[in-house]
């Protein structure tokens, strides 16, 4: 048995996976609640409990994400882009373009057949291009963020957002509400704006036949469908989009051939 853990401690969510060789035994996902340190400890503890293991049984731990530097136990850290590339290659080996829509940024990664990064474009200058704008608009519209997709797919007339700034997008959404525009049309318009931005990013690395989406944005059916419409291709979605980075962290740590004893 060779047990390895992978942790992806993001700006909002902490994710952990436990693997035995190349098999995922368990995973855990939980909000950070303002503490990277506590989130990293708690998410690993829960994943270990689900796998029926204890910390001392782990051979190696791989980490990634904004909060990885707050982890105090021995670990091997790799970049988020590299871990996403490796993790998505594990989950969906045929994919060559990975679209990661996270809270802080959106990344488009071109992946080799071995799961390495061939090219990458990152949009992290403004929240309008990331999942953060979805959270902002959900609060403005008083719609649960998990229900945005269901609203969006019922829209028949998406609103056109004229701004690329999250602050102004919020203001614009409030104005649309005052004008009596339906919530579903506002949400669909936001999804359309995001999809156009992401498509422009994809064009920079050149589109491939097999594309996938991961991160929190992959759980938004409205965004996924709008992206498919704009890109003109079906998007593959992992069964659990949140854990691809953690899987990549575990695999890459093991490939460095360093074992903790």
TrEMBL record:
<dbReference type="GO" id="GO:0051536">
    <property type="term" value="F:iron-sulfur cluster binding"/>
</dbReference>
<dbReference type="GO" id="GO:0046872">
    <property type="term" value="F:metal ion binding"/>
</dbReference>
<feature type="domain" description="ATPase BadF/BadG/BcrA/BcrD type">
    <location>
        <begin position="6"/>
        <end position="253"/>
    </location>
</feature>
<dbReference type="InterPro" id="IPR008275">
    <property type="entry name" value="CoA_E_activase_dom"/>
</dbReference>
<keyword id="KW-0408">Iron</keyword>
<dbReference type="InterPro" id="IPR002731">
    <property type="entry name" value="ATPase_BadF"/>
</dbReference>
<dbReference type="InterPro" id="IPR051805">
    <property type="entry name" value="Dehydratase_Activator_Redct"/>
</dbReference>
<dbReference type="Pfam" id="PF01869">
    <property type="entry name" value="BcrAD_BadFG"/>
</dbReference>
<dbReference type="InterPro" id="IPR043129">
    <property type="entry name" value="ATPase_NBD"/>
</dbReference>
<keyword id="KW-0479">Metal-binding</keyword>
<protein>
    <submittedName>
        <fullName>CoA-substrate-specific enzyme activase, putative</fullName>
    </submittedName>
</protein>
<keyword id="KW-0411">Iron-sulfur</keyword>
């Amino acid at each position: 048995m060779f047990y390895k853990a992978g942790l992806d401690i993001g700006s909002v969510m902490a994710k952990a996976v436990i693997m035995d060789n190349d098999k995922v035994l368990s995973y855990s996902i939980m909000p950070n609640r303002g503490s990277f340190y506590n989130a990293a400890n708690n998410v690993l503890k829960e994943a270990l409990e689900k796998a029926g293991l204890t910390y001392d049984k782990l051979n190696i731990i791989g980490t990634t994400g904004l909060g990885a530097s707050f982890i105090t136990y021995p670990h091997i850290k790799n970049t988020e882009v590299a871990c996403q590339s490796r993790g998505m290659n594990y989950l969906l080996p045929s994919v060559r373009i990975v679209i990661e829509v996270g809270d802080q940024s959106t990344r488009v990664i071109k992946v080799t057949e071995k799961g390495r990064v061939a090219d990458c474009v990152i949009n992290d200058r403004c929240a309008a291009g990331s999942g953060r704008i979805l959270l902002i608009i959900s609060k403005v519209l008083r719609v649960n963020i998990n229900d945005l997709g269901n609203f969006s797919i019922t829209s028949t007339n998406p609103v056109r957002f004229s701004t690329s700034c999250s602050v102004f997008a919020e203001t614009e959404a409030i104005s649309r509400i005052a004008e009596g525009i339906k919530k579903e049309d506002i949400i669909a318009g936001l999804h359309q704006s995001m999809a156009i931005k992401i498509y422009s990013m994809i064009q920079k690395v050149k589109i491939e036949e097999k594309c996938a989406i991961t991160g929190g944005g992959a759980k938004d059916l409205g965004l996924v469908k709008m992206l498919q419409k704009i890109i003109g291709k079906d998007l593959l979605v992992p069964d659990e989009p949140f854990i691809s980075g953690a899987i990549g962290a575990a695999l890459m740590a093991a490939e460095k051939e360093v074992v903790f004893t």
